[in-house]
């Protein structure tokens, strides 16, 4: 064997692995903010779905290794994005956990793991800057769908992650108008078992709508929620699907029903919508289509927006009975996002809003993060941008890590043979040129 060639080959492999490994540790440098003046910068992560005891019971030590890798994989993504982009906000778009029926002990263990993964521990594992605001959106694997949501699961989640429904105001530099960030629990908007909890969500939503109408939509709404709005088949990866139990409660759904989607678009009229749930991701521009002009204040539409949610759900107060409104969904790829002014939002016939359904941060979907930023164009206008920032498929990362270890061992053996055992090494690598010594 020609060990000189082996050494050169090993050198090439080391160089290639060095470049690939360097990329994995610095992938976020390719995902910089598009505007140097954006003052609201959100790093968002969708559907980590952290597993736990069930996987350990099913897979034993291989499950334990998988959990460890997934925790480190997700932590690496969050930490790298945090250090390289320095966001003002970090958000998790629901399904933080993989299973909603967790006892108190297992829930506590997963919360501690999540805090370590997200850099929110009190010890050495903390990397999250104190100035960064954390936004947690509840998902169906966190508190359940309509048939599952109950006070115990909801209270348990809120104690660890904050309220499932709330709003806060975002200040954008060089602009007099604040942004209204609305976090909405979409798991019990439609056909829920616990009517009191469903009423809490609808009361919150209708109160925000009431405030928004009173201010004539002067403050843009950034809507963060888990389950995406309704879209017809062919727009995103999967067609709309809802499964109900015998009591008519939601067992599973991949999109909100059309009536809830209409309510959000016609009444809340968000400027930008960001969701999770659909692991593949999807980008859509929702545009309201009218048969007649609505160019001024419409008291009938405002009254419909404040109808009892029970009537909205049952269809007794269907908007189609009063107004010739509909909305169309067009896939988008525009940068920056196409948004409309407060005046056009007020005149609903001109209303249009982008919905970003984020691709999952899970390894099977490339470890994706999302960067959302708001920039003031002048004293009254804004621009909004969103970009995906994936690390890479988890199998690629695993192969690179294993290759790093194996090549590291090979390089170490190469160095030991060359430096510590020079006589033996030269005996192996020497090539005789004297034919008399050849036998």
What do these coordinates show?
This protein has 439 residues and is an alpha/beta fold. It has 2 domains: 1-30 and 397-439, no CATH class; 36-392, Purple Acid Phosphatase, chain A, domain 2. Helix content is 38%, strand content 18%. It is built from 12 helices and 14 strands. The protein has helices at 3-26, 53-85, 104-117, 140-143, 151-161, 195-214, 258-268, 299-305, 309-314, 342-346, 394-419, 422-429; strands at 40-45, 89-92, 133-136, 166-170, 179-184, 221-225, 242-244, 250-253, 272-275, 282-290, 325-331, 352-357, 368-376, 382-390. The strands form 3 sheets. A 7-stranded mixed sheet has the order 4-5-6-9-12-10-11, with helices on one face. A hairpin with an 8-residue loop joins strand 4 and strand 5. Helix 1 crosses helix 11 (394-419) and helix 2 (53-85) packs parallel to helix 3 (104-117). The mean pLDDT is 88.
